[in-house]
Amino acid sequence: MEELERRQGFMRAAIELAQQSVAGGGGPFGAVVVRDGTIIGRGHNRVTLDNDPTAHAEIVAMRDACRTSGDFRLERCELYVNCEPCPMCLAAAYWAHLERVFYAATTTDAAASGFDDAVIYQQLCMPAPQRSIGLTPLLRDEALGTFSAWQDKQDRIDY
Amino acid sequence: MEELERRQGFMRAAIELAQQSVAGGGGPFGAVVVRDGTIIGRGHNRVTLDNDPTAHAEIVAMRDACRTSGDFRLERCELYVNCEPCPMCLAAAYWAHLERVFYAATTTDAAASGFDDAVIYQQLCMPAPQRSIGLTPLLRDEALGTFSAWQDKQDRIDY
Predict the structure, then answer these.
(1) B95, B124, B139 ranked by CB distance to A104: nearest
(2) What is the ipTM of this complex?
(3) Which residue of B has its CA nearest to A9?
(4) pTM of the full predicted structure?
(5) Cα(A58)–Cα(A32) distance, rounded to whole angstroms?
(6) DSSP notation for B9-58
(7) Tens digits of per-residue pLDDT, B71-109?
């Protein structure tokens, strides 16, 4: 019960950020990143404020948490967001090694407000030739040397 | 033929950025955004340099192009990247309304160097309960008011 209340508190912080975002000219999304019971990152949607199509609340919150913790991994972290993440943000959660995501509204609720993530999920899960954004191979042979250089690099930082 | 040469030139610029990235301590990825035959955005991987798990070359290049053009949409733009995009970057391309993506190395080449995008594609295309990052609903009812506030906002900027 205590854990549920704690989690509800984090979700209410994310919802509050979403509400502030609408008032401040951003999209209706807010998120917080929590580690060991403490909020270490906060974000709200800044797409139109910053002219940055990647500035979804989750991405902004994860970047903030990484800055705070000085680490590009968010292991043992939970993300609380007022809406089910789009595929960009969910993929970012995988890259960040997040542990768990809590969401309030669903992608269906978001679609009813004009944010149609489902279409992008469908696009990503199609074979490339069927996608609406064309993906064309070019100069593969010339690119492989970069990967060899990476593998040969003694002081590389894997991520 | 002239068009192919022009495109190869843009791809070589992306490969060059990837090579510079390895030399400078970033991951082996580079990208450029092109509109009307001109490069308007450049990026290389900065994940470990900036402690930002979302700073893939494509995201950095798209953010740069948006900053340059003062717009959160990259309509009529092409992305050139030295490797097939991961799902985070491809989803970002959809949000940015990019027109087309050219890539050199494949996700299989990237996996051989330790960058396993395929796993994340698989995760996104699974039903949520089967994913390794748990997605748990919480307080949906409390979140819906934010979407109503968004829809009621007269001066909202849709994106």
Answers:
(1) B139
(2) 0.96
(3) B139
(4) 0.97
(5) 8
(6) HHHHHHHHHHHHHHHHTS-S-EEEEEETTEEEEEEE--HHHHT-TT--HH
(7) 999 999 999 999 999 999 999 999 999 999 999 999 999
